[in-house]
Write a structure and sequence with these properties.
alpha+beta, 4 helices, 3-stranded antiparallel β-sheet, 94 residues
Amino acid sequence: MADGENPFCGNSLRIAYSLRDSRIQEVYYDGYGCSLCVASVECLLELVKGRKREEALGIDAERILTALSVKVGKSRVKCVELLLIVLRRGLAMV
C-alpha cells in the first residue's frame, strides 16, 4: 500500500494491492481528485490487474492517456503521474 498527493491541485490517492507469484491479484484505490485523476486511476487498475510486478512498473502516463483517448496539456499530465508515482512507491516496497 502507498499513498501520495499533489498539494497544488488537491489530488490525494492511496493504492493497495495484493501479489501472488509476482502478479497483482487485487488492486484498490481510495482518495479524491479531479476527473482526470479518478478516470486515470480506474484505467490504471484495469491495466495492472493480473500483470507481473515488472510489467506494471512499465506503464506510463502516455499509455493511460491513450487508453482513455484523452489529450491533455503538460500541467494536467501531473494528474496522471501522481497515480503512477503512488503505484511505483508501493511496488518498490515489495
